[in-house]
């Protein structure tokens, strides 16, 4: 930080002495001038930095690319407005800094196979493996030039090779297929000029030193890696490729760990006697935390563990544990990486618990996780650090000291199962957050026999609550207004009128509002007791908790209950179950509910994702929802704005004259505000126009059939709608382009809008055409 008085200190001492008795006005003036001098100096320094692609500002990247002859792929979209965060995020994909930096080097290596993998990383940010399919064709070889490892037929005794058939690491020969790899009708792979670029879109996310879940129904010796007791495929932590000419292997991509790859056969006297975990994947907790290994298990006090409690790789037996019926030998542990299951010997069940570190797969940085996220608090906030079992104690300390702004930081990726209930005083702020690089789990247990258990927060007027980076399971979160606040807010004096909000764009049609009271009743209003609730980067498990197959245990239960709040609730980059809003429609204004970059999952499309308690009545809420995926029905009083979203079930908005829905998928028959560029509305209009070109005045039955065909074709298709799967809410490759490129910036609708995957794919397709070897044709093959 620069000295604010550096200009003042350059003055002769006589002027400073004469300035002091007058209150130092000269010093104050030079401080203001010094601020402007600092800005000019920083700008001059940045002008030099802008000469280099590594240090230049984002807006300079296209200009440097233009000097190198970098060609923008206009099919992927036009650059956004650099003055907005959305435009800058889009520009990072359309004009990648890494791609511009490597442009000259890539042109020098044009035609090499390894370059295609590097192009995929630079252009799309996807790990990839390039395969020349002519090397996998079965051929008749010359006797004087035999290649024993090439073009071989299937050997049924090589189980490891059979396990790779059809994937990116296939080693078994195929007959030639003359179809093109980029055919939009029926693409094929195995032809002489074809090159396949296998890409992995899912990312590997770390969970470090977290408790494994004991599956008591299967036995006290049975555990799952997932703390939610569901099956969870283990993923590889990708290792960096050292040589630029290296072709990616299984350890270099974020691929699911195969059982055959996880095991290492031990050969004795020419025969495989046993197997153990491969050291390519298995290590200790520290190695997983550093990103060197992918899996680790710690069982303190267990007979087969070392002095630090770590289970060595020699004691791991890779096994298929589909039915939990495998009993490993004594002093060994059976592990199934495909399902994320662990089984100890029945006679040697661990008595002091099991902790695991592993990587799971998901599409983006949403929900509770150990990925990087911005952490902030008010400058005057007092921070309380809570280790496992100390959350209730830290809440007590906060209540005793009662600072105006406080943060309770959960320091470990452990389970916090203390009963959580507290009240935030008026004009106070409390943040409960995960420490950087952790994923704490708040597990709400059945502590009370005569009343429900949930995370209960009582808000007073002007209070603020922030939940950041948490995974909450077991019960729901209930946030309610203090009774005294509700009573004072609802108390209306005779003749008192409602306070209007003229600046609110959602109330611009004030004259068309529906009255809450009978015509002969006086107009009732209240002075809103404003509170603020922020839920960001959190997971409120849909269905409270999961079965082994990821089915929700309580599919009809909501995850978030809001009772009589007056103010704003913001949900950002989170995964939630159903939201229930209980408000006094007569005496209170609708709660301001804002959802962005999140998943709202009612666990069933026929259930309500947003409603009053009970699931069928209108929630007294003014909803603003952006770039989100909703699996369930929406019942809300007002929808101020719906943008770039997927509403997979019906919407019912009480007051349609307020707000709008734009660039969204909306189920036919939904009751919404005015819609703009939504699907399948556009597809239906296009179908009618095509029909009218063929038949000038088509009969109504033909129009209805054309509309029904358009609705049937244009609908979202997901790889999975079940929370806990790696491909949860990821749009399938068969999803129509009207949805995968239906957002306002031609990205996909829904929660993964900001990944800009259509733009990544189109950019990569264009670069492959530029750098593929002459006479060859490259195609993109999505592995995940």
**Mean pLDDT, rounded to whole units?**
85
Decide which structural class fits the backbone: alpha/beta
Q: What would you call the quaternary organization?
A: single chain
Task: Indicate the radius of gyration in whole angstroms.
Answer: 30 Å
Largest beta-sheet details: 18 strands, parallel
- Report the count of strand segments: 40
Number of helices: 16
Q: Which stretches are poorly predicted, pLDDT < 50 over at least 5 residues?
A: 489-528
Estimate the helix proportion, in percent: 10-25%
The separation of the N and C termini measures 46 Å
Strand proportion, as a percent range, falls in 15-25%
Overall form: globular
